[in-house]
Design goal:
Radius of gyration of chain B: 20 Å
Chains: A alpha/beta, B mainly alpha, C alpha/beta
Number of strands of chain B: 0
CATH topology of chain A: Rossmann fold
CATH topology of chain B: MetI-like fold
Oligomer: heterotrimer
Number of helices of chain B: 10
Number of domains of chain A: 1
């Protein structure tokens, strides 16, 4: 951990009393949880529960209406994020796969001479080396998502947010993405992922946050959540009875 | 009108009339320079207008949109008064030169480039904002990124400017003076031949001008299409 | 960012190369003159001769006389070459011009539709013809642009004691060629200098109706713009052009210009009345 991310970790992340109100609608309500180092948290819940909003709040894309999101250590104030995010539909710039990575590294403040090597290494790491000089926009959806994850990984995050990373993909691509997530986690990166796919949640969750109507209804270790859901809503959801 | 305009146009082209070549060359030089200048200034400004938030932004947008309809003679007159020996920039001695024509045409198409660029970049920002902010990009830092990614849409923006510039006569006539062999362009030559009553020659020049415009647009369209196919 | 900078640099270099003035260093003067001298082709005939002799290129901006004098007043021309004597003399008196020299003349003609609705064809009295046009309210197209021809037209109306107004009198605010184009379409009578008429190709039903009145005399004069008002004026080259126009050589060059077998301008620099 310390070898990879320097002496100070940004984790655990502490979220307390988080709320978001947009146009009078209360979308996130009094949400509290912790993300420890190297953990895997899967956020599940029906459509409109606020899963994506929660990730965007934590990642800093949205400003909370109330509550605190506090990162550990002095890294919290050094201006450079050490958490990255992969979107459901990643935006690839109209340039080569490699250039998409070097662009992200430039934004992250990496010196020019280091960018190419780091980007190429990231592509090789995930078997995408052959795509390096292909225009990113003409790649398939699965390839683009793998590229997006490689791009996020190249930023050397301590925590990776993934917002339904496989929901638009076929089974083969989904397997490839899940393998990448497993690899990244094995390297010591904490994972926070939303998904619609309960099987995926079982495979990748250490902890489950079950979100319903903007609130955390249940928060428990994955095995416990899937074996003995504590609340009626979670039971209905696991049984597939709650409308997504 | 002994010869028809098409026959005259064909004859002018076939004999590669030296005066005609000079006029066509000047038209292209002035217009392309004006478009290049307007691009250099207008693309970053348009993108900045799309992304920056400042008091009075809405008023600036309305003003720039309105200036898209600026009458060429007004643009010409303003530049004339600026560049005239009795004007503030008179010591440069630029009136009645191709440079003055480039300045006037740049002023004329700059609002088009700024306004359309703002629209294009605003739309693209809506699509890219979350991803770019996630990667740590500020709004201002996003300007070059968005300009580069919008390059095909922006080609069309520049073509709109090119079309306005190459077709206009009012501004270049006032600041260029339609001096034979020096500031005579396709459009001022057409105006001149019309006033001399040589309508066939005027129309022939018009046909050549339209042909040229089609050629330029076709080339830009093809380039943009090939680029799009290659980079998605 | 790198790509953006590279693009900007390339564009700038391309632009610089593209806008560079060819053949810099060639000496030239700017002459504000009238549409009649330019459009009749006179300058196309005489300027190469002047350039061959002196090496000075002449850039002609063709405007109406009023506008040409204004161009000189603003210092945007080195020499003005126009045809409205009263205005020219005022230009010199106000200190904008060094001195006025008569150069050449031609004449105005009244042209109009061949069916001659005012019944003035063949006359030689321009004032009487104007009075008749007004009386019959036959269509008349006026330049209305403060040009030398417009000034001559106004003088004729004044001589006839008429202030022209009404539907029949159209002020076009256009150059001679555009006015002739309009007259051919309306159709209407109009006053034109003979040089423009001879070189005009789109006559339609128009023909010469009245000519030969001495009040239709059209004198051209040339003036060097004063360096006292505008120090940047190229006085030496400009004076060379003025001197050449009134020299035997320049006068012969003017006399030598013909269009359709007709001499268009008649040099009279030596004439004290010019």
């Amino acid at each position: 951990m310390s070898a990879m991310h320097g002496s100070h970790s940004i984790l655990p992340l502490r979220v307390r009393g988080l709320g978001l109100t947009l146009d009078g609608a209360r979308l996130i309500n009094d949400v509290s949880f912790d993300i420890p180092p190297r953990s895997r948290t899967v956020v599940i819940g029906p459509n409109g529960a606020g899963k994506s909003l929660l990730l965007r709040l934590c990642h800093g894309l949205l400003a909370p209406s109330e509550g605190d999101i506090s990162w550990s250590g002095p890294a919290a104030s050094d201006g450079r994020k050490r958490h990255a995010m992969v979107f459901q539909r990643p935006v690839m710039l109209r340039r080569s796969a490699l250039a998409n990575l070097t662009h992200a590294l430039a934004l992250a403040g990496l010196p020019l001479r280091e960018r190419n090597a780091r980007a190429e290494a990231a592509l090789e790491r995930f078997g995408l080396g052959a795509l390096a000089h292909r225009p990113a926009r003409v790649l398939s959806g699965g390839e683009q998502q793998r590229l997006a994850i490689a791009r996020a990984w190249a930023l050397r995050p301590e925590l990776l947010f993934l917002d339904e990373p496989t929901s638009a993909l076929d089974p083969a691509a989904t397997r490839a993405i899940e393998a990448m997530i497993a690899t990244i986690h094995a390297e010591g990166v904490a994972i926070v992922m939303t998904t619609h796919d309960l099987g995926q949640a079982r495979r990748h969750a250490d902890e489950v946050l079950f979100l319903h109507r903007g609130r955390i209804v249940e928060r428990s270790p994955a095995y416990a959540f899937f074996e003995r859901p504590a609340t009626p809503e979670a039971r209905a959801f696991v049984a597939g009875e709650l409308v997504w | 009108m002994e010869a028809g305009p098409f026959a005259t146009a064909f004859h002018l082209l076939a004999t590669f009339d030296a005066t005609l070549a000079q006029i066509v060359g000047l038209s292209l030089r002035v217009t392309i320079s004006a478009v290049a200048l307007a691009a250099l200034i207008g693309l970053p400004l348009g993108a900045a207008l799309a992304l920056a938030r400042f008091p009075g932004r809405a008023a600036v947008i309305v003003l720039v949109n309105a200036l898209m309809g600026l009458p060429p003679v007004v643009a010409g007159l303003v530049v004339y008064l600026l560049l005239s020996r009795s004007g503030p920039l008179g010591s440069l001695g630029l009136l009645f030169t191709p440079t003055a024509m480039i300045v006037a045409q740049t002023a004329l198409i700059l609002p088009i480039v700024i306004s359309l660029t703002r629209q294009v970049i605003e739309d693209l920002w809506a699509e890219y904002e979350e991803q770019l902010r996630s990667l740590g990009s500020s709004r201002m830092r996003a300007i070059p990124t968005l300009l580069l990614d919008a390059r095909f849409a922006l080609t069309t923006v520049l073509l709109a400017g090119l079309g306005r510039a190459i077709a206009e006569v009012g501004a270049v006539l006032i600041v260029g003076g339609n001096i034979a062999g020096h500031t005579r362009t396709m459009t001022t030559a057409i105006a001149l031949e019309t006033s001399r009553g040589d309508l066939a020659l005027a129309l022939a020049l018009g046909i050549i001008l339209v042909g040229l415009t089609i050629l330029l647009n076709g080339a830009a369209f093809a380039a943009s299409r090939i680029g799009r196919r290659m980079t998605g | 960012m790198r790509t953006g900078n590279r693009f900007a640099t390339t564009a700038f270099l391309a632009l610089a190369a593209f806008t560079a003035q060819p053949a810099a260093g060639q000496e030239f003067i700017t002459v504000a003159s009238t549409t009649s001298t330019e459009q009749s082709g006179l300058f196309g005939h005489i300027l190469p001769l002047f350039k061959e002799k002196t090496g000075i290129a002449v850039r002609v901006v063709a405007q109406g006389t009023g506008q040409a004098l204004e161009t000189g007043r603003r210092g945007d021309a080195d020499v003005v070459f126009v045809h409205a004597r009263a205005q020219e003399e005022r230009f010199v008196a106000e200190g904008y011009g060094v001195a006025r020299f008569g150069v050449m003349y031609n004449d105005f003609v009244i042209v109009g539709p061949a069916d001659d609705p005012a019944g003035i064809k063949g006359g030689a009295d321009a004032v009487a013809a104007f009075a008749r046009i007004a009386q019959r309210q036959a269509g008349f197209a006026s330049r209305g642009d403060d040009s030398g021809t417009h000034a001559a037209e106004k003088a004729l109306w004044q001589a006839a004691g008429i202030t022209p107004s009404g539907d029949w009198y159209r002020e076009l605010g256009s150059g001679m060629g555009a006015t002739l184009n309009a007259s051919a379409q309306l159709p209407a009578y109009t006053l034109t200098d003979r040089a423009t008429w001879i070189s005009f190709a789109n006559r339609g039903p128009l023909e010469i109706i009245v000519e030969g009145d001495r009040r239709l005399f059209n004198q051209y004069g040339v003036i060097l713009v004063s360096t006292e008002r505008h120090p940047h004026v190229k006085a030496k080259a400009g004076q060379a052009f003025v001197d050449w126009l009134v020299s035997d050589e320049g006068q012969e060059a003017i006399a030598g210009y013909e269009r359709n077998g007709e001499q268009l301008f008649f040099p009279n620099a030596g004439d004290p009345a010019s």
